[in-house]
Design brief:
Elements (H helix, E strand, L loop, with lengths): L3 H8 L3 H35 L4 E6 L11 E2 L2 H8 L5 E2 L2 E2 L1 E13 L4 E9 L3 H4 L4 E5 L6 E5 L2 H5 L11 E4 L2 E10 L8 E5 H8 L3 E2 L1 E5 L5 H10 L5 E5 H11 L1 H31 L2 H9 L4 H30 L4 E4 L2 E4 L4 H16 L3 H8 L3 H6 L2
Parallel strand pairs: 6-11, 8-10
Antiparallel strand pairs: 1-13, 1-14, 2-12, 3-4, 5-6, 5-9, 5-13, 7-10, 8-11, 9-10, 15-16
């Protein structure tokens, strides 16, 4: 085997080639890291948003869209009294009739953007158990409570949604009464209104959905109830299954992320291959000389791979540093919420594997071409 110092010394023979290899591999790795982090972030927030113990009751025929759903107002109390085995706390059954709405919300500075609005009563906290009040209080009439990431959805500074600030639904001013968190769920991007306020503002006399939390009850019990009460025209779906269905809706977006990353990475990989072909082609005589003094082709191949791995792993390290400062912890808004990019072990592992494959498999074609000529022919090459 050639000494490791030979590969290390050769690395700096051509600084321009080294910069190209390091830059190209860094670009490929950071694109893969970004694609994996985006997809995992979106999957994570959708899977965490639904609970297996919660069931969402929607209007029949609106199972795919909670915003288009309409449920009669009296259905809330009928569900609470008809389905046995629901969660109860201090005598209150965990059944929450809610209104969902998307509408522009304007801040005091005049910035306006589309927001996710949810009209609730206090018993919503019995079914959305991940919600914790960070500051202020639950909204009463004329007030709203905002998720801690709602500012990202509105693309504004977080100070514009501080407790006591005003937001406007049309021309109606609402005071921010509190800020809540619901870690890792889409709820954190929502603005919660008093249900009666939102019903008045949107001029609707129906609910969008009823969410209930099961204790001894099972999903089948709720489904049987919806089938028995045909007059209410209801359909039941487990909350986690509802968000699973939503994730299918976002598959084309995830696919586009992978395709974009693959296309840009392919450009960087082919550019890197060209650089390696040119670099190794100029070293055919050098390799032949080393063979003539006793080094085998396999030893030379290992040395070339070592040299390439040093460059691509340096690029991988650069990509990790860039991802740490530019991506890790950043929040990304999408249509129904906001998710956070995280450099999880799976993301880091993907980047590391990509860096190793670039340095090994990517090196093989130019290295084999460099070592394949016969010794006399290689020694005569220029």
């Amino acid at each position: 085997m050639l000494p490791f110092s030979y590969a290390l010394r050769n690395l700096f023979r051509d600084p321009a080639r080294l910069a190209q290899t390091v830059g190209g591999s860094a670009l490929v790795v950071i694109l893969l890291i970004a694609a994996v982090a985006l997809n995992k972030g979106m999957d994570s927030v959708l899977s965490a948003s639904g609970s297996m113990r919660n069931v969402v009751i929607l209007g029949k025929g609106s199972e795919e869209s909670i915003e288009r759903s309409e449920v009669h107002l009296e259905a809330e109390s009928i569900v609470a009294t008809s389905v046995n085995g629901l969660q109860q706390q201090l005598g209150v059954t965990a059944v929450s009739g809610e209104i969902f709405y998307q509408a522009p919300i304007k801040t005091e500075t005049g910035k306006e953007n589309q927001a996710l609005l949810r009209g609730v009563l206090e018993k919503a906290l019995l079914v959305h158990t991940s919600v914790r009040l960070l500051d202020g209080n639950f909204p009463g009439p004329g007030e709203v409570m905002v998720g801690r990431l709602a500012y990202r959805k509105l693309d504004i500074d977080s100070s514009e949604l501080a407790v006591g600030r005003k937001v406007y639904f049309g021309k109606v001013a609402m005071t921010v009464s509190g800020i809540f968190e619901a870690p890792g769920t889409v709820l954190e991007s929502e603005i919660w209104f008093d249900r009666n306020d939102l019903a008045t503002l949107t001029q609707r006399d129906t609910l969008s959905a009823i969410t209930l939390r099961m204790n001894q009850a099972e999903f089948d019990d709720v489904q049987v109830f919806t089938l028995q009460r045909n007059d209410l025209e209801l359909a039941a779906i487990r909350e986690d299954k509802y968000y699973d269905k939503l994730s299918i809706f976002y598959k084309p977006i995830k696919m586009m992320t992978w395709i974009t990353a693959a296309l840009v990475s392919a450009g960087a990989i082919f550019g890197g291959l060209n650089t390696l072909y040119a670099a190794f082609a100029s070293r055919i005589r050098e390799m032949a000389t080393l063979q003539s003094i006793g080094y085998t082709r396999l030893a030379l191949l290992a040395s070339l791979i070592q040299e390439s791995l040093l460059a691509t792993l340096t690029g991988t390290l650069v990509a990790f540093l860039a991802a740490y400062f530019l991506l890790d912890g950043k929040t990304v808004p999408f249509s129904i919420g906001t998710f956070t990019l995280t450099l999880s072990p799976a993301v880091i592992g993907t980047g590391l594997v990509a860096g190793v494959l670039l340095g090994t498999l990517g090196t093989l074609p130019p290295a084999i071409r460099c070592l394949s000529p016969s010794l006399p022919k290689a020694l005569r090459s220029s």
